[in-house]
């Protein structure tokens, strides 16, 4: 359009009319991008300038990360961040072990170990030997596979295989290792390291309003073209008609025909009306988004003082979508719960100890054992009965129970400032070891073949004969030890389902323990069973010989070792059970209740087991007693009925689905249901349909060809499951993978077109967070990856209620009002040029002065609309939380949609018609020596009438007034008066008559009482319909508010959180609450001698 404006035969607007506002917008955008680029440059510079030690010649020199090249040898010290992907050559630890923390990569705070090749460990012990190192590494191309690596090291004529256990990835942090040395494999600015390969491209998320605005801009452009075409055609007819009637027009058109004139006028009108295309809207919106994001960052209601963590809006363009959320997908551990494990209860020989016995608040005499390591890591063991029983040391079962807790683990110990600090592979293990220490059984040190503990003040060293490692299939781990008296014992801990079936017999104590396990599960505690047995010397020798043989097998080694472990872990004596608490975060039940009242459905997607997830669901009020719980069997039957009833979930009459639901629980028919399924079930059902085939699903597509059948099958099953799941009040998916979490979010977006929010705190939640429309990261204990990939970061799940119900609803209201009034002011002020064309021979002559057109959207009307987008509130934050039902407005897109845009367009057209034709009517008969009836005065009068009508309309509809709001409205009028008198002054006209074409027009018009009365008349006529509508809305709104208050008063009081049995109907199996997060491989690490150096003294 700017290019077209350079042709005098086409354009009737001054050159600055479009160039000036466009230049202002581009300058603002450029400054914002410059600030962002400077920030990114500083961030890159800070990272690239980090110091590191690189081998140069025969010594290590301090250089910067930017200087690292492939093939360099780097020395890292304790707590250093790994600057590139390295092959570990050696370290200061035994067997060149290196401990690393991968929180910034996979979100796990537990330490992991890496180990150098034996040959490099033995040969590269000095700087001289490293300088002479001439090995050649052949490895795979750079890729994003974080947990796999394939390569070889060829050195001194031998080839050594390399895998992921030898690699230190960029972003890891070296822990508990004084020095380590690595050969750089992947580095550089071309994203060769694995962490950079995983960073991927940043995909900009767009809100529903973004998509709507993009379509509306296209609609406005089409309206512009249609209007320009209509006016151009009219100009052709006008030229032909009036050329014949009026001879003085013949000279004007002697070089062009009416058709050619219409063609030129089409482009002239396109230029003239192009100002209605909202160029400045996007820049203004970005500023509104930015400020509203700052409001979120500054909100003390979402500030977590305990850890000094404020809320953070990491994305500045999604704030309005926070007011339209329909589904929340939440992780469990660390998101709903605190992810701080504490030993809460236990059952020893059938006796339950822990809070609830009535003794937990008393202080036991001589209870110094529970405080002997003041200042160290602590356990919450506070049951005085258990402490006294442990001190008496007269119960052999309790003694063995506590001894097991101190012996059967893979915890590493470190002496730091004369204190014991435990480094555990899982928070559960750390909680158990700390509990044993609090009760007098203190783990002191371990070596390759010994473990030393202090038992009630007596130091004892046990010989470790074998460690039977944990894995997810075995669900248990064991340690085989010889005590100082020479007795060999096996200590085992694991899931109740695997321990109980390996007992030598069942007696009253076992029955009581099973009941205790049920009770612990109902209280949402994480449980483990512990057992032991004595092993004879002959049995151990025979088993040990076969174990050594299996350990060196080249084929089926893991299967053979598992078989030997299974053989040893038999005929156990049950000692008891432990119960570890992972507490709910503060305010989680209340938050979920508010979200449910706001018509937001919460789905829990967790990798934890079903029983634990289900009880957490009851604890946080996601599940209630009056809900029908549909598990995998019921879901399969309902989906089959869904098919038989021709895709009718609700069912009517004799529909199979209806019959099935009524049989399940008639009193809750189609009202309150919840689904609880596992990841395996989802995988089979959604990808293969095996679950439904097993149930006799009558696949209609079996007659189709295979490719078509597979596609149809997937779509139909997905839709069926989504129809069922979204009809339920709650959904819990347990044992799901990160990929399955993202899949569930994607299915809801695909089939329900709903706005989704995902919230989590770990690396396993990243995929889900990226897939959802809004991603929220919890700043927890599982690293920063979830936060780094999120759109918003919170410290607590409970802050979600304020983020959505307050900020989300306000931001949606503000953006919608801003859009409505931005389009209204554009149409109301600028469409008068269309009506003027009917009275100027359709010649594309502008009605307004060029400076008015240039400044209209930047100074005259921008500030009142901006104040609405920044400060508007319909109700206070307190009322927003008190009446969460108000949130439904955003979910239903009520405040801005195609209908609202159409009404706004008509409103703007009406305002422009009234402003133009009242002024035209008044000026037609205004003649005389002192009358103001010229074109310039007419233009100023129409402009002022339209401007005041727009400002009054905004003032009437503003519900929340601040000093800044008042100043912005006042500033608009002041800017209009100031720039009008400056650009229309006689002095300006004398300097540049081609640019300042309206000398003294504003002064002549605005000092005439007649003109002021015309402006007042236009304002009154424009305002009366709006006043009437506002009065009706106020009356109806007051009634609606009274209804909502009445509804609030009638709400049933929320039941207190009560932890008790919630076994679904038809389910008589004993529920398990086993939960144990542990990394496989630590047992082998310890038995190889790759442990901490410290020994007991």
Automatic annotation (TrEMBL):
The protein's name: Phospholipid-transporting ATPase
Top-level taxon of the source organism: Eukaryota
Keyword Metal-binding belongs to the record: yes
Annotated residues for binding of ATP: 331-333, 429, 470, 493, 526, 606-608, 735, 741, 764-765
Residues in P-type ATPase C-terminal domain copies: 787-1035
Role of this protein: P4-ATPase flippase which catalyzes the hydrolysis of ATP coupled to the transport of aminophospholipids from the outer to the inner leaflet of various membranes and ensures the maintenance of asymmetric distribution of phospholipids. Phospholipid translocation also seems to be implicated in vesicle formation and in uptake of lipid signaling molecules. May be responsible for the maintenance of asymmetric distribution of phosphatidylserine (PS) in spermatozoa membranes. Involved in acrosome reactions and binding of spermatozoa to zona pellucida.
Record-linked InterPro entries: ATPase_P-typ_cyto_dom_N (IPR023299), ATPase_P-typ_P_site (IPR018303), ATPase_P-typ_TM_dom_sf (IPR023298), ATPase_P-typ_transduc_dom_A_sf (IPR008250), HAD-like_sf (IPR036412), HAD_sf (IPR023214), P-type_ATPase_IV (IPR006539), P_typ_ATPase (IPR001757)
EC number from the UniProt entry: 7.6.2.1
Taxon lineage: Eukaryota, Metazoa, Chordata, Craniata, Vertebrata
GO biological process entries: Golgi organization; phospholipid translocation
Catalyzed chemical reaction(s): ATP + H2O + phospholipidSide 1 = ADP + phosphate + phospholipidSide 2
Residue numbers annotated as active site: 331
Alphabetical list of CDD domains matching this protein: P-type_ATPase_APLT_Dnf-like (cd02073)
Needed cofactors: Mg(2+)
Gene: Atp8b3
PANTHER family from the UniProt entry: PHOSPHOLIPID-TRANSPORTING ATPASE IK (PTHR24092:SF78), PROBABLE PHOSPHOLIPID-TRANSPORTING ATPASE (PTHR24092)
Keywords on record: ATP-binding, Coiled coil, Cytoplasmic vesicle, Endoplasmic reticulum, Lipid transport, Magnesium, Membrane, Metal-binding, Nucleotide-binding, Translocase, Transmembrane, Transmembrane helix, Transport
Listed NCBIfam families: ATPase-Plipid (TIGR01652), ATPase_P-type (TIGR01494)
Membrane topology: Multi-pass membrane protein
One Gene Ontology term of the molecular function aspect: ATP hydrolysis activity
Family membership noted in the UniProt record: Belongs to the cation transport ATPase (P-type) (TC 3.A.3) family. Type IV subfamily.
Organism: Ploceus nigricollis
Binding residues for Mg(2+): 331, 333, 761, 765
